[in-house]
Write a structure and sequence with these properties.
The chain is of the alpha+beta class and 940 residues long. 23% of the residues lie in helices and 27% in strands. Strand 9 and strand 10 form a beta hairpin. Helix 6 crosses helix 7 and helix 11 runs antiparallel to helix 12. It is globular, with a radius of gyration of 31 Å. It starts with 10 loop residues before the first helix and ends with a helix. The N terminus is likely disordered.
Length: 940
């Protein structure tokens, strides 16, 4: 189309002002959250994405799934509904998976929760999930019963978050993978299943959590609620109860009407996840499994099924519309058409019927005439749709509709405006990328390297963060067709902080007719810029929920990133807006260019490593301990200062202070020898303080992430607690450690005064093992170390010659005859766990060497444990093994397979299911004493 000359703006106006065309529609564009990822998936770009957008435009259907952890979701169903049926979909996940395993790194607890948050956000891109919500409770580990989970979390806390998410999103249908019963697998899942049904009534009750109503949310009544028909753990014996390890009668509860269902719930809806999307060239379940595979901390990467039939069966637990026993989809009986909005308030909303019907006809025609080869032909139609919806929205705001119905209709129309905005950008091929760009010298100098003075088409590596008061450059790269007018390119920064943004140049955009090129900005971060950190925190992992530090972000994944690039366009009088969190880029071997949003960090970070340091109490008076304190300078200018330790009264450090002078990006580690004149069975806090430039720095951070996954920083105070423990080890032993899926046991062993070598695969297969008295196989080592099974015979020969092999808990992959004598996990292939950390532990043979030497283990050593007693208890074993302990959860059969050991030749073979790897980071004294006995066992 030809552009009217009146639309052409000079460069200054282009980059510094907002000048939309003066139409009623121009001021109605709702601001959507900026895109976080640097590059959308191929499935979310181009003609395929546009076609899906048209489907979303032509329906008001909406759905929310409620689950317990990342990777619980029915990704195939979500993908089918979103991509196949055009349904607006949301996912509400109670926890961030903090208590799970981590196959990718040693990060655990809250750091693992940040990793799993970003993994699920990546998976959501595959599913087509529109909005991800989170609860404020933490995954504290495997929980067998709903009652135990609710005792940790509090019923009202989890219901509050679910109700708030439903009121925010206002879905027509709520569903869950879980039913709120024992077949759900464990307590967290059961709570999710119960919540999905309870929220069906609670979210619509204005008396429920009235503070949410006072804050501006409105009650919302979903029309239907479903849960997947249980099939797992069902057999002719009944349904398997994980809490007791026994079978019980097949009976389920309906939390909507408080009735019981005898037998398996009926299938009311079957979702055909195996359907093939012709534009995407794959089935919905295939695309979903690729998303599930992005959650690599819990899995081994994507395992995509072959094309074929696949389905999920769902039972309906409640409905506010007339329904049939067997339905074609979740929305049977619900008018999800655009004209259906006119029926929400009876005769008062009749004025909407004809305009909405016309909008539907226009969109239906666009779908019918859609051409993947010419998506731009859809743009005029979408512009027409935008104008019509904007006009309707004006009329609704001034109508006589009830407040409740006006709110509902207005929200639906605003959603349609945003969907039209996104579809227009796809149809026109408008693209925007905002990223930090290097450049030195005076403003506008040395930043251009491309042809004709433009910026290079290949981005260059940059720092991942900025610090308060520092300055940097951002380029906002635009590519758009001549059919649009570029109205504004800008950066958005935190409103509560004083950042300065100055336009430097616009290579490629300096022609008023240009729609492709770059806008370059010089940015100075606010002097008080806050670190980019989670808006939620907890004082310790013992608290099973988060404190919400910034309530406005509750239920969201993260607070907004600090800098956002925004580009606004005009297409035939209709505004189009794109926004993206400003990106950084670094190069990694393998993935190549890795992008991540820009974050703010403090000038200086200081840390003291783990939260607990255990020191053996010696017979002599006083204890000395070497303490290392890493300091890292993030600021772009050099910094000098001093570092000191805040110590308990009477303690001393040598040196008392350490001077530092660091250059940009430089790390330094300072060593202090701490002298405790006396040490008792108590805890002693120590804090590190760095002072530089009249500022005090007392926190450090851990970057949680791996590979190309978007990272996030977890901040911790630079402090630790020293705990004195009466513990001894037998002699000066050299320990070899085979790391599994990551734990802190090597550090715990060193705190006992023993030397630890972490063994590589070459050491296991060809190294000299005779130098070690004890070798420890870390948790899940047989799963994480492919060469370990190959080295197993060599390890057993080493044991037979006199070595002590300590095998920490393993999964089903261990149950293949790797031990010298037979031992087996549960015959059903389900490893037994004892999840109650307070479960009594009986010492069946207190004189057993593992319980008596060199430390006499008593039941008091099992007090104060964290998260669980243990994992993967053996269910059967050969008579050669001694089993000196017994423990169990309430209702569970006694578990004696938590500590097994046997002589093998001249050596000792030990299997340990007790979760020592969970206890030692928490400074649990008894765990250190038991660990010392295990390491001291044997004849070498």
């Amino acid at each position: 189309m030809h552009l009217r000359r009146a639309h052409l703006l000079p460069l200054a106006a282009l980059l510094a002002t907002t000048v939309y065309a003066q139409t009623d529609a121009a001021n109605l564009l709702p601001a959507s959250a900026p895109r976080i990822e640097a590059t959308p998936l191929p499935e979310n770009r181009g003609a395929a994405a546009l076609y899906e957008s048209l489907q979303h435009l032509d329906t008001t259907a909406s759905l929310m799934m409620i689950v317990g952890h990342p990777d619980d979701e029915d990704g195939g169903m979500l993908t089918y509904e979103s991509r196949g049926m055009g349904v607006r979909t949301a996912l509400f996940t109670l926890t961030r998976g903090e208590g799970g395993q981590n196959a990718m790194s040693a990060a655990d607890y809250d750091a693992l929760g940040l990793i799993r948050t970003n993994e699920l956000l990546r998976a959501d891109e595959y599913y087509g999930v529109d909005q991800q919500y989170w609860g404020s409770v933490a995954d504290y580990g495997f929980s067998k019963t709903m009652e135990e989970a609710l005792s940790q979390w509090g019923h009202d806390r989890v219901l509050y978050d679910a109700v708030r998410a439903v009121r925010l999103y206002r879905p027509m249908v709520v569903c869950s993978v879980f039913v709120g019963g024992v077949t759900d697998g464990h307590g967290h899942h059961q709570v999710a299943g119960m919540l999905a049904q309870e929220v069906f009534n609670a979210a619509g009750d204005p008396k429920m959590f009235p503070d949410q109503i006072a804050a501006g949310l409105q009650p919302w009544k979903p029309l239907k609620v479903y849960a997947r028909v249980p099939g797992f753990s069902l057999s002719p014996k009944g349904m398997f109860d994980y809490a007791t390890g026994k079978y019980t009668a097949i009976r389920f509860h309906n939390y909507v009407d408080d009735t019981d269902i005898n037998g398996i719930p009926a299938t009311n809806v079957t979702i055909q996840e195996g359907g093939r999307d012709p534009l995407l060239g794959q089935t919905y379940i295939q695309l979903a499994r690729r998303g599930l595979g992005e959650q690599r901390s819990q899995h081994e990467g994507p395992n995509v099924p072959l094309p074929g039939e696949a389905s999920s069966a769902y039972h309906r637990y409640g409905s506010r519309v007339p329904v049939e026993p067997v339905e074609q989809n979740f929305f049977d009986g619900i008018d999800t058409s655009l004209p259906g909005l006119a029926k929400l308030d009876g005769p008062e909303s009749a004025f909407l019927a004809q305009p909405l019907s016309r909008v539907h006809e226009i969109i239906a025609g666009a779908i019918l005439n859609f051409s993947p080869d010419h998506p731009e032909k859809t743009a005029p139609v979408l512009a027409d749709v935008y104008r019509r919806i904007a006009k309707l929205l004006d009329e609704v705001k001034t109508s006589r509709l009830s407040v409740e119905q006006r709110t509902s209709i207005q929200r639906e129309l605003e959603i349609k405006l945003q969907q039209t905005n996104d579809a227009l950008a796809q149809a026109l091929g408008i693209e925007m990328t905002a990223l930090v760009t290097p450049g030195g010298g005076a403003r506008g100098i040395e930043i251009y390297a491309g042809p004709r003075g433009g910026l290079s088409s290949t981005p260059e590596p940059t720092a991942a963060q900025v610090t308060p008061g520092s300055d940097f450059r951002v380029r906002v790269h635009i590519r758009a067709p001549k059919a649009v007018v570029l109205k504004k390119v800008a950066l958005e920064t935190p409103q509560k902080e004083h950042w300065t943004v100055e336009r430097e140049a616009a290579p490629g955009l300096d022609d008023p007719h240009s729609t492709s090129g770059d806008a370059v900005f010089h940015v100075t971060a606010a002097q008080d810029a806050a670190p980019t950190a989670p808006y939620f925190s907890r004082p310790s992992t013992e608290q099973a929920y988060y404190d919400i530090n910034e309530p406005e972000y509750r239920n969201l994944s993260f607070a907004p990133y600090p800098v956002t690039g925004v580009a606004s366009f005009d297409y035939d009088g209709v505004p189009v807006r794109l926004a993206q969190a400003v990106q950084t880029m670094h190069l990694e071997l393998g993935p190549g260019a890795v992008y991540a949003p820009l974050v703010v960090t403090p000038d200086l970070s200081v840390s003291l490593g783990q939260a607990w340091i255990v020191l053996p109490i010696s017979a002599t008076d006083g204890t000395r301990h070497d303490l290392s304190v890493p300091v890292h300078l993030h600021a772009t200018q050099s910094a000098a200062g001093t570092l000191r330790l805040d110590l308990p009264q009477g303690w001393q450090a040598a040196p008392q202070t350490a001077d530092f002078h660091l250059h940009e990006g430089e790390d330094a580690v300072f060593s202090f020898q701490v002298h405790a004149p006396t040490l008792e069975s108590a805890s002693y806090p120590i804090a590190a303080v760095a002072e530089s430039g009249n500022k005090r720095f007392t926190v450090g951070y851990e970057t949680a992430g791996y590979g190309a996954l978007i990272p996030y920083n977890l901040y911790r105070a630079a402090g630790t607690n020293v705990r004195g423990v009466k513990v001894s080890v037998a002699g000066d032993r050299r320990i070899g450690y085979v790391m599994g899926t990551g734990d802190m046991l090597p550090s715990a062993i060193e705190q006992l005064g023993l030397h630890v070598d972490q063994l590589a695969d070459a050491d296991l297969l060809n190294g000299d093992l005779s130098q070690y008295q004890t070798i420890v196989l870390g948790i899940r080592a047989y799963a994480a170390r492919p060469d370990l099974p190959l080295a197993n015979a060599r390890l057993l020969a080493w044991v037979h010659a006199g070595g002590t092999l300590v095998v920490m808990y393993q999964g089903s992959e261990f149950d293949h005859g790797y031990a010298p004598y037979e031992m087996h996990l549960n015959s059903r292939g389900i490893a037994e766990r004892v999840v109650d950390e307070r479960a009594p532990v009986k010492l069946l043979d207190p004189k057993d060497p593992l319980l008596s030497s060199p430390n006499q283990i008593t039941e008091a050593d099992f007090e104060g444990w964290a998260e669980e007693r243990g994992h993967s208890f053996m269910s059967s074993w050969a008579p050669e093994y001694a089993a000196p302990t017994e423990t169990n959860d309430p209702g569970q059969d006694p578990q004696r397979g938590g500590l097994l050991h046997a002589k093998f030749g001249k050596g000792e073979y030990i299997y340990v299911a007790f979760a020592l790897h969970r206890q030692t980071p928490e400074g649990v004294p008894g765990a250190y004493r038991l660990l010392a006995n295990l390491l001291s066992a044997g004849s070498r």
